[in-house]
Specification:
Blueprint: H1 3-11, H2 22-30, E1 65-90, E2 93-117, E3 122-141, E4 148-159, E5 163-169, E6 179-187, E7 216-227, E8 230-241, E9 244-249, E10 257-263, E11 267-277, E12 282-293, E13 297-302, E14 308-312, E15 316-330, E16 333-342, E17 350-355, E18 358-361
Antiparallel strand pairs: 1-2, 1-17, 1-18, 2-3, 3-4, 3-5, 5-6, 6-7, 7-8, 8-11, 9-10, 10-13, 11-12, 12-15, 13-14, 15-16, 16-17
Keywords: Signal
Organism: Halomonas cerina
Protein name: Transporter
């Protein structure tokens, strides 16, 4: 799978943070009360009903509280590229071949996330996604007689990569101090990776992957600063993708090509923004997130002569503007709508997510 295709899966899940932070802002507006005159009130810890930032941690779910969050996410990406191979005689005279490429990618993900507060400072999380992907690729080569066109449609649907995470709140956020939360996330390989899908004799994929194919571990730290009626948030994380010995044949011809060792690029992840409460039920979120994805190193082995070749992919810069809206239906249920707009070349054009956290007492 291409680095651009893999990038979508890295970043699939980031937009889920939109709309959850407003819950804390709404809770702060509700907890503002008039204190008795002549008596200094005791400083209390404001604890929202659900965590403030899904995926990246927040003020955690209270002890014994269970939150189930169904989610639907849609992502779209379009690539329109024109390339020229030939000779430039003058700035207005080109002799050669023009190639036009038009790629449309659509990703649909339905997921169920569960978060359980073991203590008032420790929370466990699990996410189970189901992924459907569709890709349309059209290539046209002009300046040949006749013009040559190639169209290919690929799709696949299957279980995605199941994730588990733990979140720990380091402090109580008193005396105007921000909350600091440590997060540790593990992503499995339950989805169909790029080396698990069907290919033809030339090594060309016949379907799309629904997972990354590599285990990953992501430690991160989150900061939340309440400033009624707003909450400022920031997150900094690093994703370690574990190297794997694939040892898989990808072509079946006179020069059989094997993929031996693959080391996916690690990711530096940054996000920040603000949630603002309009009233006790409604709020909106404005933020920005950026993933800096390193090079992926792949080792190819030619089985006919035993030669080894190492190929490095390009680095990726995935930056997006985050917009969110949240409506609290009752103390246990809220509706969150998030929109992610890609502002860098490597980012998906748009990502839309709809989530409905449902809280209940587990013990």
């Amino acid at each position: 799978m291409s680095s651009r295709g893999t990038r979508i899966l890295y970043t699939t899940g980031l937009i889920s943070m939109i709309g959850c932070t407003p819950v804390m802002a709404q809770q702060m507006a509700q907890d503002t009360q008039i204190q008795p005159v002549g008596q200094e009130p005791e400083e209390q810890q404001v604890q929202p009903d659900v965590q403030a930032m899904a995926e990246y941690g927040g003020v955690l779910t209270p002890k014994g509280r269970l939150v189930l969050e169904p989610e639907f996410q849609y992502s779209h990406e379009s690539i329109n590229r024109m390339t020229f191979e030939g000779v430039e005689v003058l700035s207005t005279l080109l002799i050669g071949v023009f190639t036009a490429q038009d790629v449309d990618r659509d990703n649909y993900t339905a997921a169920l996330t569960g978060r359980l507060g073991l203590t008032d400072r420790l929370e466990l999380e699990m996410k189970v996604p189901y992924v459907y992907r569709d890709e349309s690729n059209r290539v046209t080569v002009s300046e040949v007689d006749p013009d040559f066109s190639l169209a290919r449609e690929l799709s696949n649907d299957a279980l995605g990569d199941i994730e588990v995470a733990a979140h720990y709140q380091f402090n109580r956020g008193l005396a105007g101090m921000p909350y600091f939360i440590g997060n540790l996330r593990y992503k499995s390989t339950t989805g169909e990776g790029p080396f698990d899908i069907r290919r033809n004799s030339a090594g060309t994929p016949l379907e799309l992957s629904t997972g990354t194919g590599f285990h990953s571990i992501e430690p991160s730290i989150t900061m939340l600063l309440p400033s009624a009626p707003a909450v400022y948030f920031a997150n900094l994380g690093y994703v370690f993708h574990l190297e794997d010995d694939v040892n898989q044949q990808v072509t079946q011809n006179d020069e059989d090509l094997f993929i031996d060792d693959v080391d996916p690029g690690d990711v530096v992840r940054l996000s920040f923004g603000m949630a603002y409460s309009i009233n006790p039920r409604t709020s909106f979120t404005l933020g920005y997130k950026n993933d800096f994805i390193g090079e992926t190193e792949t080792e190819y082995v030619n089985n006919s002569d035993g030669t080894t070749t190492r190929v490095n992919s390009n680095t990726l810069n995935v930056g997006s503007l985050l917009l969110g809206w949240s409506y609290r239906m009752n103390p246990d249920v809220s509706v969150n709508l998030g929109l992610e707009l890609g502002i860098t070349e490597d980012a998906p054009d748009t990502t839309l997510s709809l989530r409905m956290p449902i809280g209940m007492n587990a013990f």
